Amino acid sequence: MTRLFTALAATLALAASPASADPDPTDWNAVLEEARGQTVYFNAWGGSVQANDFIAWAGARIADDHGVTVEHVKLSDTADAVSRVIAEKAAGRDEGGAVDLIWINGPNFAAMKEQGLLFGPWAEDLPNWALVDPESNAALTADFTVPTEGLEAPWAMAQVVFWHDTSRVAEPPRSMEALLNWAAANPGRFTYPQPPDFLGTTFLKQALYDLAPDPEALLAPADDTNYAEVTAPLWTFLDALTPHLWRAGRAYPQTGEAVKPLMADGEVDLAISFSPGAASAAIANGELPDSVRTYVLDGGTIGNASFVAIPYNANAKAGAMVLANFLLSAEAQLRMQDPDYLGWGTVLSMEALPEEDSAAFAALDLGVATLSPAELGAALPEPHPSWMTRVAEDWTQRYGIAQ
Amino acid sequence: MGQTSTARAQGRRLLPLAPVMTLTLMLAPVGAGLAFTLGPAFGYLPALGGTDFGFEAFRMLFDWPGIWQAVRVSLTTGLASTAISLALVILILAGWQGTRAFGVIERALSPLLSVPHAAAAFGIAFLIAPSGWIARALSPWATGWERPPDLLIVQDPWGIGLTLGLVAKEMPFLLLMALAALPQARAAQRLTIARSLGYGRVTGWIKTVLPAVYAQIRLPVYAVLAFSMSVVDVALILGPSTPSTLAVQTVRWMNDPDLSMRFQAAAGAVLQLGLVVGALAVWRLGESVFARLGRRWAMSGGRGHRASEAGARALGVTLAAVSALAIIAGLASLALWSVAGFWSFPDAWPDALTTRTWMRHAPSLGAPFWETMTIAAAATLAALILTITCLEAEHRHGLSPGARSLWLLYLPLLVPQVAFLLGLQTLAIGLGIDGARLPVIAAHLVFVLPYTFLALADTWRAWDVRHAVVARALGASPTRTLLTIRLPMLLRPILTASAVGFAVSVGQYLPTLLVGGGRVQTLTTEAVALASGGDRRLIGLTALAQTAAVIGPFILALALPRIVFRKRKGVVHG
Lengths: 403, 574
Prior knowledge:
The structure holds two protein chains of two kinds. In chain A, 41% of the residues lie in helices and 12% in strands. By secondary structure, chain A is α+β, with helices and mostly antiparallel strands. Chain A folds into two domains: 2-156 and 304-369, D-Maltodextrin-Binding Protein, domain 2; 161-303 and 379-399, Periplasmic binding protein-like II (D-Maltodextrin-Binding Protein, domain 2). Chain A is globular and about 65 Å long. Chain A starts with a helix and ends with a helix. The relative contact order of chain A is 0.18. Chain B has a domain at 16-54 and 361-506: MetI-like fold. Chain B is 74% helix and 1% strand. Chain B contains 27 helices and two strands. Chain B has helices at residues 2-14, 18-41, 56-63, 67-96, 100-109, 117-128, 133-138, 160-181, 187-196, 201-230, 233-238, 246-254, 261-299, 306-338, 356-361, 366-397, 400-405, 411-414, 417-430, 437-462, 466-473, 478-489, 491-507, 510-515, 523-531, 536-564, 569-573; strands at 44-45, 50-51. A two-stranded antiparallel ribbon of chain B has the order 1-2. In chain B, β1 and β2 form a beta hairpin.
């Protein structure tokens, strides 16, 4: 009887709106109806085997539940999907685009939002949005301080952690000042990915937080008067640190992933990561020695959320929403946080979950090298993007042409 | 009979159009690609709000602090790697052509061409890095290293690692091109005469054979120069990073989340194009200087000293061996990594061997493998047909204007792919033909055709037309002459061109991804995405899978002429 009613409602909804109209997430049954039979091309970074497997699993699940097929378009760089949407806009293809859902990061989100390349708002109308608590977790509605305004849905939490190999460094340095002293005593055994790589600039942000006399200033846009003053301690720090870096700062790993083999080979003893569970996963995968552990700085570390967004001209918007909604379900989030599968942080609020679900989260073994939420501590918010643009430029000027 | 003559008449009418048709087929994508590089470079890209023409993008480009270092390292690595590769090829051919050892060198080097560039670069990096296989094998017993030393071996700011990696990869390509050219250059006869006049082997070869061979491999040499300067994947793995080469930097700007950087990227691409053209001009100048010096040297009549002859021969074979070993050992280290458990420094061997990576990933590579083969075969066949009809039209109708404008075919090799492809992609989307296999094949054709053309053109033109005259005198039609005389005689260069074209197609990443809209998944799109995770086991596995896709056609290209002409060796060896 209910099913009959649902079908009837869906038919009415379809009849009421022109077929080409965009799906409306407040009418979720209509979205499900429209999504059935659609193929969602999910453009997501394909460099993580665990994440690829997770996406394949999520695709199989919503194929069973809702008849939506998910094709994972494995990218080496999110920019490729952004390029695709720009090319479609340039060619005038304003509907039926090839990209249905993008795993997007803060800077790409800000750029696509500014250029009007995103569909929405839709994210805060997803049924599973009720399971998150944006009040207590500001990272869910502000991506690099840019308001998300329902244009993207969160699916994982990330927070800066550092790795140390306990067989060589028992007591790691827990502040930037201590890191500098450690590096001076152990030259060539620390490095960070080369800015403007995402993780490389994150290291600079983290250092800026730790060293700036007034970190509050970082949350507002940088201006010419305070930029020099706020960043001065950072440059003093980097001037002192660079000669003690791996290869004396004459070469840098090009990506965050490239640091992993350096750590495994013992080229470096400390490294930065943006995924609290990555070390455990890498140990399980034979990519890191089992003596690697994670730690955070005494002053706290930066955290943010990973999001998915729908381009303005996506072909399967309804199917994309169904996938995004599934990624926010307790079932998907529990598997995501399980280090046997992915080991990423959940975006759900334990208070908003039914008791059996929150109990299941509490019962998870997070893995040998993963800190508990209490040890991880509250995440510091991302600084305003204007700081990073300028810092990355100045970094290149000062250290990026070290010949 | 009447039908045949009609068909023949049609053939006569259609064949002269071949160069025009080929050019049109290529010009649309090339034109669109260039427009979408030049437009944004001068501020025009309405999709990103750029509607005013101006020089702002170039101002930003030249304000970028590392620009001159990036330009310098692009120029020096490009010119040095091309010069060294060519010198090595000359040393090997001059010292060893026609000997038994030469057969070994040839068989060892040619298949190396089938190793994809990124795989070769990863392999070399795994080998020579301070934590690489060589250091592991020698530590700690010989070096005393318990941990990898902090030495700047790969990614050095001077680009030495990059240059050596490029030499190891480009030398086999040039050698294969030169080998295909040897019969048409009548190398054996020239050398016999020179030696009978008392010239040493090396001196005689350089004085008498080199001028003829170089004239035929000039275009491949230019292609190597252009490629070495604009290569991205090898430069990312082995090249410097403070700053990177201009091509790598251009890709970075193109991929920058700040979309306004795409204007600067386009300007960078235009500068890159200018650099390549400039380097080609410098090279051309160098050619004439060498030609002048060479003529004087040849006229001097020196027969070559016994000691320097021997030295040159030893040097040639040693460097060739080192270069081949670098790639082979690199591949071996990739293979070992793909089955390694945890493998810490300084162990020369992994803790444990496991098939886990293969079990987990090999099955999912099956479908992309066949997709890759289908696309590569189709693109190569199309490129071959276009190349041969163009060349045949040129031969039969003396279509020099068409031939002269065929240089446009080489544009895709000169412009950095990343900037060029945005236009190609926009064109495909505008025509509504993206996201399927056929457009991807067409996009591959843009990059495959220049290589098949340059691999075949000079050898084709150097074919002794007296064969055709004799055939015609005996009553054979031009088409019969083509099918029964020319194609069989040129089987070897044709197969070489096919193998090169096939390899080029297999290696295409961005064209496949962008034109295919992510819906056409090949081995390379899978490999590049997986490799971005930095897991050395996966890098090893995907690199081997890519190599496997190319090595079959290469072995075929080398073996087939020997099998087909086993009773007519003169056809193969000229």
